[in-house]
Amino acid sequence: ELRGVVALDGPSGTGKSTVARRLASALGASYLDTGAMYRAVTLAVLRAGVDPADAAEVTRVSTAAELVIGTDPHQPTVELDGQDVAAEIRDQPVTLAVSAVSAVPEVRAQLVEQQRRIVARAVDAGSGIVVEGRDIGTVVVPDAGLKVYLTASAEARAERRARQDAAAGRATTVAATRADVERRDTLDATRAVSPARPAADAVEVDTTALDIAGVLGELLTLVDQRG
Ligand code: C5P
């Protein structure tokens, strides 16, 4: 069992990213956003003009892409081929295509290998790491000391997502966001390779009625008990 490694999985709109960063910061640990990695590869696919459903072409682009991801919870960075893409990977075209790209087995194999190297480095350095995604507890770090699966009602998740989009200046409605959130969840949960699901030994935390501080408090308690 890997002490100091927290696997934080769950669908979008559960507050996962914010909570993961704050938890890492509170623990003095590193932070890894694996969704940002799938998004960056998706951006590379779109820039190359490749169809996200063409697995062979997607694999070719993914293999050639140079992806550098920072692990400082105060300033997470994502670089694609030497360029900062942190903002662009949150835009609508990437969000629409990412589930297709992340369903390609070779893309997952490449990124999981990179993710495991980053986790190993943090463990070796003794800093600990909070890793967020969809398959962290099931595939990437199955021996993580603590596995948490965040959930929330579809309504609550769509509202949070819409608020984030509005704050970032992206035009959407709650209804459109809800449709997108549900579409992406279904694709992520039903893909053949590493479908998004809780690990058998993950602690499920329902965030529907909790604010960020409330979720963070629950996670800190869990880390104290068994992290
Ligand atoms: O977490 P975020 O919403 O940014 O993730 C974007 C997409 O990346 C997800 O909808 C999913 O398709 C993919 N993903 C994944 N495995 C992970 C993290 C993200 O397949 N560990």
Automatic annotation (TrEMBL):
UniProt KW keywords: ATP-binding, Cytoplasm, Kinase, Nucleotide-binding, Transferase
EC numbers: 2.7.4.25
A molecular function (GO) term: ATP binding
Gene3D superfamilies (UniProt xref): P-loop containing nucleotide triphosphate hydrolases (3.40.50.300)
Localization per record: Cytoplasm
Domain Cytidylate kinase: 6-224
Example of a GO cellular component annotation carried by this entry: cytosol
Principal cellular location given in the protein's record: cytoplasm
GO BP terms, alphabetized: nucleobase-containing small molecule interconversion; pyrimidine nucleotide metabolic process
Keyword 4Fe-4S: no
Pfam families: Cytidylate_kin
Catalysis: reaction(s): dCMP + ATP = dCDP + ADP; CMP + ATP = CDP + ADP
Family to which this protein belongs: Belongs to the cytidylate kinase family. Type 1 subfamily.
The protein, known as: Cytidylate kinase
Name of encoding gene: cmk
